[in-house]
Amino acid sequence: MRALAYLFAGLGISLGLGLSGAGHLGPLRDHGLLREVCDVALIVSVFASGLAVERAVARSSWRLIGLLLAVGIPVTIAAVAGFAALGMGLGLGAAMLLGAVLAPTDPVLAGDLGLGPPGGPELGEPRLSLHTEAGANDGLAAPFVVGALLLAGRGDHGWVGHWLVVGVLLHVAEAVVIGVLAGRLAVHVARPLAGRSTDRRVARLALAAWVLGVAFAVYAACEPLHAYGLVGVFAAGFAFRRAEHDERLHSCVHEVSEPAGRMTELVAVVLIGALLTTHGLAVPGVGGWLLAPVVIVIVRPLLVLALTPVARAPLSLGERLYLGVFGVRGVAAVYYAAVVAGTHALAPHETAVVVWTTLVCVAVSILVHGLAAGPLRRRWLGEP
Questions:
Q1: Which of 105, 131, 129 is closest to 116 using CA atoms?
Q2: How far apart are alpha carbons 111 and 269 in whole angstroms?
Q3: Model confidence over 12-67: pLDDT tens digits?
């Protein structure tokens, strides 16, 4: 519901800009600004997602999370690409790009649907899988976006082997190694920072500078190696959680990362709302608008319902539906759409359709999930 309020605030800004004659922001023209804002929001939220993953995770949960990542991402890309090619008239490259852009679920907007703060009640499944998947797949979608860009730009298939070995395996492995090393090393500095001062505010300020600095440093360290920064950032948060057993320190770090995540979420979602215009929302056409319910109501739920028996996850039907329906599309998708807008790999019309269809799907996702989260959580999970 919070993200929905932010989206409407952004829509108000868009309306005000139009009425004042100042001119609208545009996702194609202002893709650089959009990319940077979403990038910062994702770095903070992905790191916080890694920090929040429970220390003790059941084997069935790991199987389910692994399947949601290894199978869920490519199947979602294929399903969206098929719909985009058949129902929207996009070429293969543009259709695959749209699928890759919309594949990741979102830790920024799924925060209230996933895990709580350290020391809180053990929420377990399906929140654990929803939360962990959203944190990890933002970065793991990147190699598929790169592959789709290569397909759109080159048209041949000679690059596929190199992309699989270097673009996927090597660069993902590099990011994981950098993230794990940084996360484990960060613990040794965080301990004395947390206990050096008797003033809690001073300790929090020192931790804020250090913890957020680690997240951005990991992201920056991945850049020269062409490793995927968001993968490294999630691995750093995940490794930090497992290298430190002091729940008080984790609570203190959470108190730092949570407000930072909320602030970046506010800026990113307000900006997304401010980009929406009646002209732009007409660009995807009927097919683009139909894609939103197809992804939310059909593709994602059916995928989860099919994978949970394979993972032998002991989930009730309500829990499976919760995990399936609440794969929120949000800031991660908009970030990758901004990347596509800046590459000029597609023809201008196809670029516009991919970008604006992404914004439509994100806006519909925020609206539907914002209104349905409370009632469906009570119905399917039995929560108050």
A1: 131
A2: 14
A3: 999 998 888 777 889 999 999 999 999 999 999 899 888 888 767 888 889 999 99
Q: Is 372 exposed, middle or buried (0-12, 13-18, 19+ CB in 10 A)?
A: middle
Give, rounded to a whole angstrom, the gap between the first and last alpha carbons of the chain: 16
Among 183, 191, 172, smallest CA distance to 214 is for 183
On whether the CB atoms of residues 355 and 340 are closer than 8 A, the answer is: yes
Torsion region of 23: left, alpha or beta (phi above 0 gives left; psi -120 to 50 gives alpha):
left
The token duo for 359 is 């914004």
- Cα angle 359, 336, 2; round to 5: 50
Q: Say whether the peptide bond before residue 126 is cis (omega within 30 degrees of 0).
A: yes
For residue 299, give the nearest of 365, 373, 201 by alpha carbon. 365
What are the φ and ψ backbone dihedral angles of 82, each rounded to 5 degrees?
Answer: -60, -45
Residue range 2-381, CATH number = 1.20.1530.20
Ranges of residues in the chain with a pLDDT under 70 are: 1, 55, 108-124, 155-156, 194-204, 245-248, 250, 383-384
Distance CA 150, CA 63 (A): 31
Cβ contact 311:323 at 8 Å:
no
Name the nearest CA neighbour of 335 among 17, 180, 103, 21.
103
Q: In this predicted structure, what is the pLDDT of residue 288?
A: 95
Predicted local confidence at residue 190, as pLDDT: 77
